[in-house]
Design a protein that fits this description.
This protein is an alpha/beta fold. It has 17 helices and 18 strands. β6 and β7 form a beta hairpin. α4 packs across α12 and α11 packs parallel to α13. It catalyses: 2 H2O2 = O2 + 2 H2O.
């Protein structure tokens, strides 16, 4: 735990269940100290093992049952603890205590994840990312269970099994793992056209985020805020990363999958361990009840965004992740999120995808975590007391005293008793319903292409090129020509430019049809309109013995002052000796490190750079150049860039050409990518 952070109620609660084994005596699970743990109990040294060896049986039985079923979706994930604090009281909109008390720090637990892959899959694949937050409030747990994309593929939860089946490895051969570039996924997209908008997001840079720290989060659905007068407002939830929203490039993401399948979790873990705590601001889009039908989209449709230019995002608080998990299984794997975990002041809308999730999450936890008592696992327990007449069941931990476990009763004075709404009891919003029972979908949900076009219109030229490349790659992996043709025809409704690109890339006949005539754009959807800062960036310094100590020192000081992380790369490990005799520790060698692990590279060289060193250094720099990353070079290393024709290009900063080299390079690092760079010449 960070020294400057006060323990929260959740920390204190988890501490009760935390065991440190170091320095302790080995015992069985019943506390029996054991004199031997190396050998089974046998009938003679070379005889059979005896059934009475209770220690062996306990140890082996536990090992045989250490794994629980992985999540059907979101299996590959990683988590961290933190805290949330609201900036100003929101009494006008909600009576939720944690959104009104500015003096209170609410403990949180956040899990980030990919959706499609199994637990052992890579983290930098093209996929939607889960972004789920558990608030341990004084009124009970509130779970904001969202994604890094504000819309979803389907409009009704009854379609979710179909979507998951389509994107998962194909059942006849079990391939591909953690990838949507295959026939069944795109067959689903083409034949369920409500997915058009989400497919545009997934094929954009949002599908390959740079890190969890630089990734937006969205509640996806429309919820309600209820104030103490019983008044309702519709709301959508946003998490805005303080470091801005940034992404990888596709070649980089693919290489990272092989170089470091744990890239995203490692990034999160190391940033917290180093005290560079990820921060996110909570934003709310709020619509008055009477304005429900005032827009050119249905606000309950989960395939639609609320454009921020029409419904501004009100920033209301900040979440800081400041403690890593103590045990990945106990916390990251056993945490159970549920959109139905709410508190007074927050309620549901009639979004049909949300309505289905309210059933699904409880149902899946019963199987995955072994029964109805998953709420008693330490990471899931609320920090406030809880009392009800639920009893027994698999893995029950609470020991309930007394003879009464029912209501109404007289033997326990009719307790536990309910709490009136005016005293903090939860009450569902009194929404008037007058309708026929019917299996149908509102006509207002039937426009599938207007917002897909809105998204396309909102992208910068480089972002559009990335979307075209992503579609071309994905459809290029599809083996069935009829599926390719259906997708070409479908996305002609969004953009003929996009559709024609897919057709040309796949050798498919171009579509005949009319693209959407929507001209509206939402600049907030482009990642070019985000925060740009060196903070949180990882910069690799390529150096050798005899490096220019002054140049390294001044550049490193400037970058660290701006919040960047500095790591040194050289031909071998140990320490390097600078031009003034100072020592510099090596973090990576050319063998153990890779260009794709860094946001920017600074080449400083040194006196001891033979041809193999220069070859490796130039390879690092060339790959970073091709990924549009910032590159800096001192006088001693400038020749490496010249040899590869990389000098005098956007985002390449040379010491000879900069009056204030450290400042100029730090500004380049802040820019993240230089899309105007011509990488072909």
């Amino acid at each position: 735990m960070a020294e400057n952070r006060k323990p929260t109620k959740k920390d204190e609660q988890l501490e009760k269940y935390t065991v440190v084994d170091k320095g302790k005596k080995l015992t069985t699970n019943t506390g029996l100290k054991m004199a031997e743990d190396e050998f089974s109990l046998k009938a003679g040294e070379r005889g059979p093992t005896l059934l009475e060896d209770f220690h062996f049986r306990e140890k082996m039985t536990h090992f045989d049952h250490e794994r629980i079923p992985e999540r059907v979706v979101h299996a590959r994930g990683y988590s961290a603890h933190g805290e949330f604090q609201v900036y100003e009281p929101l009494k006008e909109f909600t009576k939720a205590g944690f959104l009104n008390d500015t003096s209170k720090t609410t403990p949180v637990f956040v899990r980030f994840s990919t959706v499609a892959g199994s637990k052992g899959s890579s983290e930098t694949v093209r996929d939607v990312r889960g972004f789920s937050t558990k608030f341990y409030t004084d009124e009970g747990n509130y779970d904001l269970v969202g994604n890094n994309i504000p819309v979803f593929f389907i409009q009704d939860a009854i379609k979710f099994p179909d979507l998951a089946h389509a994107v998962k490895p194909e059942p006849h051969n079990g391939m591909p793992q953690a990838a949507s570039a295959h026939d069944t996924f795109w067959d689903f997209i083409a034949n369920n056209q409500e997915s058009a908008h989400m497919a545009m997001w997934a094929m954009s840079d949002r599908g390959i985020p740079r890190s969890f720290r630089m990734m937006e989060g969205f509640g996806v659905h429309t919820f309600r805020l209820i104030n103490d007068k019983g008044e309702s407002h519709f709301v959508k939830f946003h998490w805005k990363p303080v470091l801005g929203t940034h992404s990888l490039v596709w070649d980089e993401a693919q290489k990272l999958s092989g170089k470091d399948a744990d890239f995203h979790r490692r990034d999160l873990w190391e940033s917290i361990e180093n005290g560079e705590y990820p921060e996110y601001e909570l934003g709310l889009q709020i619509i008055k009840e009477e304005d429900e039908f005032s827009f050119d989209f249905d606000i309950l449709d989960p395939t639609k965004v609320w454009p921020e230019e029409e419904i501004p995002v009100k920033i209301v608080g900040k979440m800081t992740l400041n403690r890593n998990v103590d045990n990945v299984f106990a916390e990251n794997e056993q945490v159970a999120f549920h959109p139905g975990s709410i508190v007074p002041g927050i309620d549901f809308s009639n979004d049909p995808l949300l309505q289905g999730r309210l059933f699904s999450y409880t149902d899946t936890q019963l199987i995955r975590l072994g029964g109805p008592n998953f709420h008693e696992i330490p990471i899931n327990r609320p920090v406030c007391p809880f009392h009800n007449n639920q009893r027994d069941g698999h893995m029950r931990q609470t020991v309930n005293r007394g003879q009464v476990s029912y209501g109404n009763n007289s033997l326990a004075d009719n307790t536990p008793e309910t709490t009136p709404p005016e005293e903090g009891g939860f009450e569902h919003y009194h929404e008037r319903i007058d309708a026929h029972k019917i299996r149908a979908r509102s006509d207002s949900f039937k426009d599938h292409f207007s917002q897909a076009r809105l998204f396309w219109n909102s992208m910068s030229d480089p972002e559009k090129e990335h979307i075209k490349e992503a579609f071309s790659f994905e459809l290029g992996k599809v083996g069935e020509p009829s599926v390719q043709k259906q997708v070409v025809d479908m996305f002609a409704n969004v953009s003929r430019e996009l559709s024609d690109t897919i057709a040309e890339a796949t050798g498919t006949e171009k579509a005949v049809g009319t693209e959407s005539q929507v001209t509206k754009a939402s600049p907030a959807l482009s990642q070019e309109n985000t925060t740009f800062t060196p903070s949180g960036r990882k910069v690799g310094i390529i150096a050798a013995d005899g490096y220019n100590a002054d140049a390294v020192r001044s550049a490193a000081e400037k970058l660290r002052a701006e919040g960047a992380v500095i790591e040194v790369i050289s031909a071998k490990g140990g320490e390097l000796t600078g031009s003034d005799g100072t020592k510099l520790g090596v973090d990576h060698t050319f063998l153990t490190g890779e260009s794709v692990l860094f946001d920017a590279l600074l080449a400083v060289g040194g006196k001891d750079t033979d041809r193999p060193f220069q070859h490796d250094a130039r390879y690092f720099l060339l790959e970073a150049f091709q990924h549009f990353k910032p590159i800096g070079a001192t006088k001693d290393a400038a020749a490496w860039l010249e040899a590869e024709n990389m000098n005098d290009r956007p985002g390449v900063v040379l010491e000879d050409n900069a009056a204030d080299f450290p400042k100029a390079f730090a500004e380049a690092v802040a820019s993240h990518r230089f899309w105007g760079r011509d990488i072909m010449n």
